[in-house]
Amino acid sequence: MSGKNVTEVRLADAAGIAEAARILESGGLVAVPTETVYGLAARADSAEAVARIYAAKGRPDFNPLIVHVAGVEQAARYAEFSPEAITLAEAHWPGPLTLVLPRRNDVTLAPAVSAGLLTVALRAPAHPAMRALLAAVNFPLAAPSANRSGFISPTCAAHVLASLDGRIDMVLDGGATPAGVESTIVAVRADGSVEELRPGPLQIGTRGEGASIEAPGQLASHYAPGKPVRLGALDAGPDEFLIGFGPVEGDITLSAGGELAEAAARLYACLHEAARAPHPRIAVAPVPDEGVGRAINDRLRRAAA
Ligand code: AMP
Ligand code: MG
User: Which of 63, 67, 109, 221 to mutate to test the pocket of ligand 1 (most atoms within 8 A of CB)?
Assistant: First the structure.
């Protein structure tokens, strides 16, 4: 199914979701809005379908995927849930929290989903389109961000097409995604401790240093707009496109009022616009390193790496 030259764009209404479910059923690729960014979904129980995700994205095969499920009951088929993991899932699912848990031995997931690790990353997303799709199929969905590997993540259907048009079967268009940065990823250890592997919309767990080992996808250079990026800028150099925040005005702004949630929601749209601008360089105003600002700064550092 994939590898077609034409990517169909459908509204995320009942008919669009039914068609998306049919494509996924037969092993195809569909980009779907979630509350964080658009995900590129394939059935997680099919090695062929999962291989298509890696091929369409040009994603290195050591970078594991997040498996999306309807809720804890479905997730418990694939991973060992400690009491701490159950508490976290019950508190934050559906929502932008990914749990990295010990993978069960008997699972029907394609091995490539966890890239050879003994753990599996699971999330129950809150976006109504993704929830409707998960309810329409009887398998979990592997879904990394719907962009070519290393490029800026997509927060609207046009961003998806900008890097994957012709490489995937369908985009379900559900408008702009509300949170705007990828899910918070935490690992729940055997001793019950919780370590943050990737900052995101939710603030949970202790800040880990093991992220590079634990989450191989946390590559230093990522989310790259294809131009040099300078951080902490108070004004623009002559050849720079300035992304502002709060009092730093810029050519565009993450949030004129200095609001972090708005800045997170607008982050990738601003980076896409900066990438398209004629300026050879990008500068970004300082963003406070608190709350979801930690996730914003994490992604900006990778864009600048
Ligand atoms: P993306 O969906 O493109 O944001 O990428 C998924 C992220 O989840 C990557 O950063 C992966 O490293 C991370 N991830 C997925 N599975 C695991 C796992 N089993 N252990 C640690 N990190 C994981
Ligand atoms: Mg990604």
Answer: 63
Does residue 197 have its Cβ closer than 6 Å to ligand 1? yes
Ligand nearest to C-alpha 114:
1
* Amino acid code (one letter) for 125: P
DSSP string for 130-176? HHHHHHHSSS-EE--BSS-TTSPPPSSHHHHHHHHTTTSSEEEE--S
Name the CA radius of gyration of the chain, rounded.
Answer: 19
CA of 217 to the centre of ligand 1 (A): 6
pLDDT by position in tens, the chain (length 305): 444 578 999 999 999 999 999 999 999 999 999 999 999 999 999 999 999 999 999 999 999 999 999 999 999 999 999 999 999 999 999 999 999 999 998 789 999 999 989 999 999 999 999 999 999 999 999 999 999 999 999 999 999 999 999 999 999 999 999 999 999 999 998 888 999 999 999 998 766 554 444 554 566 667 889 999 999 999 999 999 999 999 999 999 999 999 999 999 999 999 999 999 999 999 999 999 999 999 999 999 999 99
Domain 8-207, architecture per CATH: Alpha-Beta Complex (3.90)
Contact between 43 and 49 (Cβ < 8 Å): yes
Task: State whether the beta carbon of 114 lies less than 6 angstroms from ligand 1.
Answer: yes
Q: How far apart are alpha carbons 216 and 249 in whole angstroms?
A: 36
Domain ranges of the chain: 8-207, 229-304
Which ligand has its closest atom nearest to the C-alpha of 183? 1
d(CA 176, CA 199): 21
Cβ-based neighbour number of residue 67 at 10 Å: 27
Distance of CA 72 to the CA centre of its chain: 20
CA nearest to 98, candidates 220, 224, 205 = 205
**Pair of tokens at residue 292:** 């979801």
